[in-house]
Structure formats: structure tokens, C-alpha cells
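Much of what follows relies on a compact textual record of a protein's fold. A record is reproduced here so that you can trace the correspondence yourselves:

. . .
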Amino acid sequence: MIPRSMSTTAPGRRGLTLGMAFAIVLALAFAAGAAIAYRMMQAWRDSLLSAADELRESASQRADETVRATLADAQRVLEAVEAQVQAGIIQPSDPVSLEGGLLAPLLDHPLLTEVALTRDARSGPAAARQVSVFRDGGALHTRRTFAHGDHFWSERRSRPPGDSALAAVPFVREADRVDDPAAHATFETLAMPVNRGRLIWSDLHYSELDSHLPEDRRRIVVTVLKALYGANGAPSVLRVAFSPAGLDAVGAIRVDPAAGPRDPHRVFLCDEQGRLVTRLSPEDRMVETDGDLRVVSDHAPPEVNSALHDPAVGASLAGPQTVRLVVNGRAYLARFEALAGTQDWRVGIVGPEAHYLGDLQQARRHLLVNSVLMGSALVLLGALALRGLRRALHRIVESTGRMSAFDFAASPPRSPFGDVREVLQGLELAKTALRAMSRYVPVDLVRDLYASRREPALGGELREISMMFTDIEGFTTFSERMGPDALAAALGRYLEVMTDAIHATGGIIDKYVGDAVMALWNAPAPCPDHPLRACRAALGCQEAERRLCASPEWAGRPTFRTRFGLHTDTVMVGHFGAPDRMSYTALGDGVNLSSRLEGLNKQYGTTVLVSESIRRAVGEACAFRIVDVVAVKGRTRGVPVYELLGLAGAVDADRLQAAAAYERAFQHYRERRFAEALSSLAVQEGDPVAAVLAERCRLLAAEPPDAEWDGVWHAREK
């Protein structure tokens, strides 16, 4: 039923329509249309140039993605090696373990040229000061540098192409006197306290491995470094170097795909001084200029040279810059945008203005002349007619403006123009639909769809998000004891406080499944600290649940105890389902792991379990304790599982001490020292997690596992 204020006006009382008003105005102001057409031509020109800017912006984003992909590959290698060192998989003090850990990334990533670990003097005189595994041509080499008295010497092992065995060939002494790797400026810089935990990227530079070669034979690389700290506080510097050949793919990006191979644009990378970072042609050469390696092109088009000398290159650090250049009497459009995470590199795009405008200028001149001749006599009458029309349209603009601000409050559709009233009534119906829609899907998603004026379509994108699954312990038993109406009321109130706690941290509700909740962070709206927000949401839900169950309104109802599973991963997020009925959700193995973590609470007697990715991302902002390394149902590899104890500073000292004691016992368990683990666990009465581990240790002590036992517990239930 349509409200009275929105009911359709009877045909006989429709009043003046927009069609009638336009017919009167156009009949008397036909000539003025030419002038308006001129303005439309101007708008057309602006639209074409805006579309051109969008094409250049899209190409710039693709160039940014190409650079990020190249840099991210090296960063992932560094982070993977770092994680293995921290997890004890790679032992820096074990030459075989360290060499194998550094060799593996080179086998998997053909653009990597070197992975090296440099340790300081506290590593001991017998330990290698530096171990470097590098690629030279098709062969892989290992170089180790040792201290001997007041000087250093090195040895090298070279593997033939295709041979990756660690002990394929013996080491051969290479030099009796080499420089101390720990005295290099990069090591000293990384070892500074201010750089602790930071990734340091280099610009293009010659490989340190080729320092003995002439410049024309030295390889050019980009390096990422990070300082690692051992238990004794001694720093080690992990270095990953890779070839920048992947960056040259930027030049192959097509700005206007519709133009095909005849696309006249040129795409390149440069620095803030307008010096090229990528080649424009295979003949371009790399030379050292003012201490930096840069490309020198003898065949660069004049428009590119002109763009590189424009002040917009330096100004692009404050945001994308587009300038118009005139070279040899021809106009060009150049765009520069700074690339985040690089050494002040910019992506530059240059293309002819005529590519977009074509014959528009000539057509505009003809139309302008005709419009002025025909419309000069009726400008005044047209202005009077348009005055009334403008007032009518103001109501539409006002209503759509409120909708643009996401204000869907109802308002009466009043207007002297019947067509305007119909439009306003349509807007009121649209607002009604949007108000209803926002109750079924995340509000942020509705806002995004409305602001972009598009309908949801099947498809998604890969995005790193944080996920939370919840479930009420023993809810089936509760539901059997309560009537349908009482159960619906209790569950509705419970889900209300849970939803409020999740929304308070910027999360969205993906779905309700009975008493269970699936929530997401960092989708659809970006949220940089989404792992921490997910942890805060879990703690907030627990607190909201306690307050609800202790409140007078809950009297006589059973006390709920909710279990939570949290995980951060890159999954597919978007609209999935059928074309006529879809859901905004997340899909992927990471979603399954989050659900499995929630279910693991039943086995350990915990309430909030999180993954390694959550714990690593949150860092010191929350207190955790490791619970187990579990291969959840459906997986063969074990993953560390942690219990969220609370926010940092909000967990009492006794609980933190108990957690530390449990983690020591867990370490004994992983090291097969089951008796010592049982001794540490004996004092932790009332801790269900300790009880689970103690029972497992008793079983393993009675029947010791085989030599291949790795301490991973294989969960048989979801």
C-alpha cells in the first residue's frame, strides 16, 4: 500500500508537465538551443578529456600494480625466510640449514639474484659471518665468509645448472682477505635501533657480488633488507636482491586498449628529477648519474623529453599531475603519479591530445556559428521559461542531494509540474527500497552501490580481510528447552548486541546462520588495522554477552557462552549466487580455516582462538598464548593456533604468568620432553587447555612417537 503522501495524482489533475513546458520554451527559443548545444560541445570536450584522464589513470594504476608485484615478490621471499628463521625451521647457526633455506627461494623465483644473511661479531668466530646464495648465469652459487684473526676469508660452492643439491660439490677457498660484511654501510644502517622491524628498499644499484667486475659486466638489481634479532639481541641482516627486468613491462602497457597496436601513448618510469628508470627501447643503456643508476635513451620521442623536463614531475609527489605540452606545434597530454613504496619513482604517460578530440574542434565552430545566428532573438524568452523550470528541478536536485548524503528520510513529493511530481514519487519509492535493502545487506555495501549508481553484479576480487565466526555453546540444548517465540526473542536480542559490538569496530555482518555469526573486516570499505579490530570485536562481543546475560531482561533465560574463531587471509570477496539472487560474502580456504578455528574451541575448552596471521598482524596490541599447532580437518599442514587473552595491559599478571608457563610446557612438548612438560602443567589446575596438553603428553610418554613426529595435532572433527 502506497502512503497518502506518495499516492499518484489523478490524470485530470496532473497539471503542467515538463513536456509542455519544454515544448513552449523550445517553440519560442529554438535558436537558443544552438548556444546550449555549444555548451554541450564544450561539455563533450571536457567529457572526452575526462575519459582520457581516466584511461591514463587506469594505465597508471596498472603500472603501479606491475611495480608493486615486482617488489612484493622479493618482499614475500624475505618475509618467508624471516618466518622460517623465527619458527626455527632455518637455523642460522647450522650451515646446512641456513644454506638450504636461502637456496630454496632462488629455485622458485627466476628473477631473484641473491638471498644472503649477514651476522655480527656476536655470532662467534666459528660461525660464518655471511652466507650468500646467488645466481650467476644458469648456475647457483653459495659463498661463505669467515673471520680469521683481524681479517676475513671466503669460500665458494658452485652448482652446475639444474643441480640444486646442497652437497653437490665441495666448497673451495676463494680469497684469503675480504672485507668484513658486517662493516658494510647497509649492515650498520639496518642494525640501528630506529630501523628495527623495518623493511629497507634500495634504488637501482650494481650488485655487490659484481664489485670486482667492470661496470659494463655488472648486474643491476633492486634490494630489500631487514634486520633480524636473535635471542641474544645480536642483529643479522637478511638481504634479497632481484633483477629489475620485470619493471620494463610497464612500457608495454596500453593506455587505450581500443586503439590496439596503434595506441600512441608512451608509458615509462622516472624519478623526481625526470631521469628514466625503465627503457623506452631495447637500445637504451643504463649509466650512473649523480650516484644513481638511470636509463639514458638516445631515441626518446621529443614529447617524452619535454614531459621529463616539466615541473609536474617533481610536483607529482603531492598527487597526480596532468599537464598540456606543445611540442613542434602539436599538443600532448602528460600525466605523472608518484609510486608509493619506491625510491621516489613516478609513472609517466604521454599521449597526443588529438587522439581524443579528433574533429571535435571543427564541428564545434560550425555549430557555434549556427547557434548564435538562430538563437540571438529568443535568448530572453528562453531565459524566462528556464527560470520556472529551474525552480522545479531544484526540488529534484534537493531530493537527490539528500540521497547522495545517504539520507533516505521520506518527504512529500510536491511540485507544480506533474512530471516533476512523478520523478519525486519515484525517488521516494527508491528511498523506501533502499531503507528496506539496508536491513538485509551491509550498510557500507548499500552506500557504495548507491554512490556509484550501479547494480550489484556477480563477481569478486581478491582482498586481504579479517574474518570472525561465532557459535553459542550448547545452543541446540537451549532451543529444545524454550518455546519458538521465546527462542526467537532471546536469539534476536543476543544477535542485536553481538551485531552492535561488531559494527562498533567497523566490521560488517556477512550472514547469520541460526545462532552463528560470520563477520568481515576490510570489506567492502578498506580498514588498515582490520586484524586488531577483529580482536577488539571478539572481546567486545564477550563483554556485551556478559552484560546481556546479567541484565534484568535476561532473567530466567539460560546464560549463553559464545565461541569465536578469527583469521586474516586473502580470499575472494564479492557478490556470489544466482543472477537474480546474490549475496555479498567471502569465499576461499581462509574462510574455512576461520570456521575451523571456532570449532576447535570445543576441543580445548577455549572461547577465542585466532590464527598465526592475526597474532602476527596485531603484534603487541593484544596478549596471546599459543595453544597448539593443529592440522584442522580438511588440511594436512599444521598451523599455529593462539588463544586471545585480551588487550595489552588489560590482562592480569597471574593469567599472563600462567600463559607463559603453558607456553614453556608446550615448547617441551614440541621438543619431545614430555615429562618436563607434565611437570610444568601440573600446577595449572583449572586450565582446560593445559589439561588437554597434559593428557596428550601422558599418552606420548607412554607410547613415544616415531622419528617423523613433528608435534602437529591432526584434528578429526570440524
Remarks:
- The longest strand covers residues 562-578.
- The first helix runs from residue 18 to 28.
- The radius of gyration is 34 Å.
- Residues 254-357 form a domain with the Beta-Lactamase fold (CATH 3.30.450).
